[in-house]
Amino acid sequence: MCIDYTDFNKACPKDSFPLPRIDQLVDTTSGHQMMSFMDAYSGYSQIKMNPTDEEATAFQTDRGLYCYR
Q1: What is the per-residue pLDDT across 52-62, written as a single tens digit (0 to 9) for each?
Q2: Cα(5)–Cα(2) distance, integer angstroms
Q3: Bridge partners for 61 per DSSP
Q4: What pLDDT band is residue 37 in, cutting at 50, 70 and 90?
């Protein structure tokens, strides 16, 4: 299934959150005993969401309306 988010993306406000450079990330970890990374691939669907925000994650396809669970 492929979903076209073009119209949805046009309607959403744009925020600028540039990714930091890798050398800056490495430098900021200097002197710390531990470093942690969230696995965005397998951990994404496991992030707790406020139930009032669930409706905003819905998307519609030709097969129906789908919501985050």
Answers
A1: 887 677 777 77
A2: 10
A3: 64
A4: low
Pure H helices in the chain:
6-11, 22-28, 40-43
Please, what is the Cα angle at 18 between 12 and 22, to 5 degrees? 150
Tens digits of residue pLDDT in 6-18: 888 788 777 776 6
If DSSP codes are grouped into helix, strand and coil, which group holds residue 49? coil
* Contact criterion met (CB below 8 Å) for 59 and 5: yes
Which tokens go with 7?
């119209």
Which residue(s) pair with 48 in the sheet? none
29-37: Cβ within 8 A, 24+ apart: none
